[in-house]
Amino acid sequence: PVQLEALNVGAIDFGDVGEAPPIFAQAAGAPLVYVGATVPRPQLEALLVPKGSAIKNVADLKGKRIGFNKGSNVQYFLVKLLEKHGLKYGDVQPIFLPPPDARAAFEKGAIDAWVIWDPFLAAAQKTLDAQILADASGVVKNRGYYFSSKDFSAKNSDVLKIAIEEIHAVDTWAAKNQGAAAAELSQVLGLDKAITELYLGRAAFGTAHITREVLAEQQAIADTFFE
């Protein structure tokens, strides 16, 4: 992701990202540290199929072309979803595409399914009538992570603490004022309010500390990709 590339060259000191990308960044030697996390948000990523698709369950994905962003949280979700239903990653045809290209491929039928996160997920549901075959509930937690550089974190722990507290406060407000939050997000993202309402309607709000449990979750993801 752009945020991790920016951190690596010293262009930013703080950012947020999904659960899988920082693992690849750490493996490549990026000087990042986790400074906070979101609560689990499994409904914010899903595997989509076109309306009327012959794919009716996960078992039907065998041999199919599945588009997704390489090295992302949705790649990990796909691996674990297939595993849960007795399939292997090698049983499907992975097609590595960033979200805009994956949407175009999905729309013209160049891929059979698309694994994606919100708000791209909600946009596809609303504008393409895409159908959710499975979301990440009961499969993976799909946390988000807030990160900083090792150097900035060591020198500015008080600033980072305030940043996480402010994010938590915004999340608390959004949870209680979803209509207003959806309207604001609609303006920021340039999306129809119906899309941001769908997205926020299934979101989980709040931040979490970096605990041993959270780090164990990240280690499990690293182990999966290593295998």
Topology diagram in text:
Elements: H1 2-8, E1 14-18, H2 21-27, E2 32-38, E3 45-49, E4 65-68, H3 73-84, E5 93-96, H4 99-107, E6 113-117, H5 120-128, E7 131-135, E8 144-149, H6 150-155, H7 157-176, H8 178-189, H9 193-201, E9 207-208, H10 212-226
Helix pairs in contact: 5-9, 7-8, 8-9
Count of DSSP strands: 9
Strand order of the largest sheet: 5-4-6-3-7
The average pLDDT score comes to 96
Radius of gyration: 18 Å
Q: End-to-end span in angstroms?
A: 22 Å
Using the 3D structure, state the CATH architecture of the largest domain. Answer: 3-Layer(aba) Sandwich
Shape: globular
Plain-language structure description:
With 227 residues, the chain is α+β, with helices and mostly antiparallel strands. The chain has two domains: 2-41 and 143-174 and 205-226, Periplasmic binding protein-like II (D-Maltodextrin-Binding Protein, domain 2); 43-135, Periplasmic binding protein-like II (D-Maltodextrin-Binding Protein, domain 2). It has ten helices and nine strands. Helix 5 (120-128) packs across helix 9 (193-201) and helix 8 crosses helix 9.
